[in-house]
Amino acid sequence: MTKVSVIIPTYNRVSTVLDAVRSALNQTYASIEVIVVDDGSTDDTAEQLLTFSSKITILSQKNSGPSLARNNGARHARGDIFAFLDSDDVWKPDKILRQVALMESYGKSMTCCVCNAEILDQANVRNTDAFGIAGVKSQHEESVWLNPGEVLASRFLLFNQVAAIRRDAFVKVGGYSSRINLLEDHDLALKLASVGGVWGLITSPLVIKSNETKGIGVECGKNPLQHARVQRVALTGALESGLIRDAAMRRNMSKRLRSNASEIQNEELLSSPHRLDRFRGRIGRASSNIANFIARRSSPKVKTDEVILKNRPTKDEFNHD
Fold first, then answer.
1. Which residues constitute the domain of residue 275?
2. 60-88 tens-digit pLDDT
3. H or E element in which residue 77 lies
4. Is 175 part of any domain?
């Protein structure tokens, strides 16, 4: 039976991490180990985690950020599949069971499997879902995703909480980047999609993500300029990693970087106290919109980032082990 390592980084989230751990321990899939990495918490996280006794492995480290915490957990993991869970989110009981079943039905060529997630607002009411935000659609409940790289290069898909990743692929891309603490999951997803293989796609929301708790990602999302700058760092780092060689992926990522540069410039102008700068910014955006419109009308309409799927295979149909 394939062993799954669940890795939960946490920092000062004693109010939510216990529920996250319970959702991992309550999975209907039997062969699971749960590793919690306490990233230098100063609240009573360490004490409360001890209530789980021998059911989990607890690692403690000096506060170094979520990327290094996840990599630390991965180094101590014994599973063939890694699944990461943020300490303020929870999984539905059959999340791991369904992902492993889909990955095993295809074989080792399926390097990753992602499911949908419910996104809760600050009142803990379902607001939307991760696939809806990313524009990822499938008429099938379970599918084989044939071009994840092209699609992810053109948009963001919630990744940390929804992914199950084969250990070999995670190691091959070097795990999470230690350079960034925001959009590190997007960076990892792009690199994983670039190393070959197909992905599994499950349309049911098997993850519940809450935006109620404070964190660097939530706070950054409230600041358009900061968020745009973080996107630039993540995209540039992924491009410069040397792993992404697919022409369609690089083309889509370069297009996003150009759009990102324009967004940063506009946000900087809008935040300027000088009205002349604001006026120039409006003129610049109008000119840019006109140029983009003319370019779209004159260029061939080739959709390189459509989600290409096929229905879930049977074990007899595919055997790539």
1. 224-298
2. 999 999 999 999 999 999 999 999 999 99
3. none
4. no
Which of these three, 71, 88, 105, is where a domain ends?
A: 88
**Residue 288 is assigned to a structural domain of this protein:** yes
Copy the structure tokens of residue 164. 């199950």
Residue predicted with more confidence, 27 or 181: 27
The H or E element containing residue 277 is helix 275-298
CB count, 10 Å around CB of 299? 8
CB < 8 Å & 24+ apart, contacts of 264-273: 264/225, 264/228, 264/229, 264/232, 267/224, 267/225, 267/228, 268/225, 271/225
pLDDT at 274 over 60: no
Choose the final residue of a domain: 36, 58, 88. 88
Distance CA 161, CA 168 (A): 19
CA quadruple 207, 210, 211, 216: dihedral, nearest 10: -70
Tell me if 106 is assigned to some domain.
no
Q: How far apart are the C-alpha atoms of 251 and 239, rounded to whole Å?
A: 10
Show the tokens assigned to 53. 């006794």
**HEC per residue, 249-273:** HHHHHHHHHHHHHHHHHHHHHHCCC
C-alpha span between 237 and 317 (Å, rounded): 38
What pLDDT does residue 272 have?
Answer: 60
Of 147-156, 192-201, 262-271, the one with minimum mean pLDDT is 262-271
Determine the 3-state secondary structure of 177 from DSSP: coil
Q: Which residues 6+ apart lie within 8 Å of 316 measured at CB?
A: none
* Number of domains composing the chain: 2
* The two structure tokens encoding residue 184: 């590190």
Could you give the CA distance from residue 199 to residue 267 in angstroms, rounded to a whole number? 36
Say if residues 84 and 170 touch (Cβ distance below 8 Å).
no
The answer to whether 66 touches 181, Cβ cutoff 8 Å, is yes
Q: How confident is the model at residue 320 (pLDDT cuts 50, 70, 90)?
A: very low
* pLDDT(316) > 70: no
Looking up residue 11, the CATH number of its domain turns out to be 3.90.550.10
Domain presence at residue 75: yes
